Amino acid sequence: MTKQYDQAYFERWYRDPALKDQAIGGTARLARKVAMAVATAEYHLERPIRTVLDIGCGEGVWRAPLLKLRPRISYLGFDSSQYAIERFGPRRNLHYARFGDFEHLRPCAPVDLLVCADVMHYLDTRELDRGLPALAELCHGVAFLETFTREDGIDGDTHGFKRRPAKFYRQRLEALGLTPLGSHLWLSPALSDDTAALERPA
């Protein structure tokens, strides 16, 4: 059965009271992720971030905590959920696109923070490889690419989860010039020459 990112999906995984803060969209957990990504991007850029592109944004849940930290930030999101775009698109600046569409889609100049959270491990390899180059080309600062592998203990939504080894993603992202920083964070090729040796994993 094809996975449907409809209202029922978001209610189940993002707002089910039984999951409390362990839900994908738990507010405290999300706030910590956003704060970490913003701080890391600003550390490497040496200035406040101004622009964010969220690929696979769902309902655009990163937007509110980003604006709380940086009220003047420009946030742009893309997702393949017709429900999310129809319901939240105009208010949250969300637009329809599949990940593979980024083979050609370049909707903005490279951003300070690029987000692609909880997306890549659900994609078929062909679609993943089509869209991957955009992650490096559209990021001028830091990318938060939250991705899980077969080495991880996975709880929650396992429907359609691709049990790939970590090296599958690491090899592809590093081939694009992205530098791993840890905690799902990757440094843009534009800044890769500006880091000290011990800022990067061995």
UniProtKB/TrEMBL annotation:
GO terms for biological process: methylation. It comes from the Bacteria. The keyword Methyltransferase applies. GO terms for molecular function: methyltransferase activity. Residues 53-138 form the Methyltransferase type domain. CDD domains: AdoMet_MTases. InterPro entries: Methyltransf_12, SAM-dependent_MTases_sf. Keywords: Methyltransferase, Transferase. This is TPR repeat methyltransferase. It comes from Lysobacter niastensis.
